[in-house]
Amino acid sequence: MKTRINKLRFKRRTLFEISRIKNEVKAPDYLFDLLSNETYDEKIKEFMSHGNHERNHATLSEIEHRLQTEMISDDELPFIKGNRDVIFFLWGYIYIYYNNAYTPLTEYHFLDKPNRVQFGNFSSIELKKKFLYNYFDLFDTAIQESKEYKMNLIRGAISALKRQYENTKMPKWLSPMNPAGLDWAEQYIKRQPDNEIAQNYYSLTNLLSAYTLSFEKEKYLSILTVFRLWAVHPAVKEKFIHKMNKAWLQERRREEMKDYCNLSCSIKTTNKEKLHLIANHLEFKINKAVEFLIEHVYEDIKNEIKK
Fold first, then answer.
1. What's the predicted TM-score (pTM) here?
2. DSSP letters of 237-304?
């Protein structure tokens, strides 16, 4: 039974193998982008038209046969059809681990990994998805790039994400519909001291560093993913989120009260009881009821008040 691999992935990897056979010093940059079927067909046709046609055809057949077992199937790569939060999570999980665990081995220059990984731009979700395609389809020259290793890594990532769906509960105000809250949460997280052990790949510091550019374009997903990937005990994470929520509510309370002042006065007990009755009738709290009465009486007499 053949492995199910979509045409774009398969043709791109085929061209990648062809560039190796042609002994190119560096893999062509276009291979690391996601192009059209027509473009890949033209490149393969170009290869077939140079040199001995029969030998080229045999080489192409051998490559295509081998890739059926070497490539990971579409079904094993959830980012292909995954939604945005899945892509954000998988990118961070794999990118951070890869950067910390990776040791350059053979064909390092051929793949030009420093520019494609360590110094790459992954600010948008499209660029994150491209990295995942490149890692799973093209990177294959290190222990961390073997098919078995990649399969274990992606399964570990999916398992971790499923746990976080259950364990990481975010406050309702932390939402794309509340940009002010997102800005505040970003600054709150960045102000927290880093007391984590250096061996923790998914420390708050490492995560904030990895998602720095992402905060500018996808703030909500960046914050959500940082919390999901943060590798601390669930109780520690829950406490952090609780403190953040409390701090935000206090901040909102201060903001709401900035135009208010205290009013101290004495009124008859009977009038106090009447005030309570008025407040209950209007379904207001006492403070709101007093404001309501002042505003309405003022509207009635403001033209009579001497300036």
1. 0.81
2. HHHHHHHHHHHHHHHHHHHHHTT---------HHHHHHHHHHHHHHT--HHHHHHHHHHHHHHHHTTT
User: Which single residue is written with the structure tokens 């790459």?
Assistant: 120
**φ, ψ at 289 (rounded to 5°):** -65, -40
Distance in angstroms (rounded) separating the CA atoms of residues 133 and 73: 12
Length of the chain: 307
Residue 300 main-chain phi, psi, to 5 deg: -75, -30
pLDDT in tens, 255-305: 888 888 888 888 899 988 998 999 899 899 988 888 888 888 878 787 777
DSSP 64-117: HHHHHHHSPPGGG-TTTT--HHHHHHHHHHHHHHHHHH----TTHHHHTHIIII
Separation of alpha carbons 201 and 242, rounded Å: 24
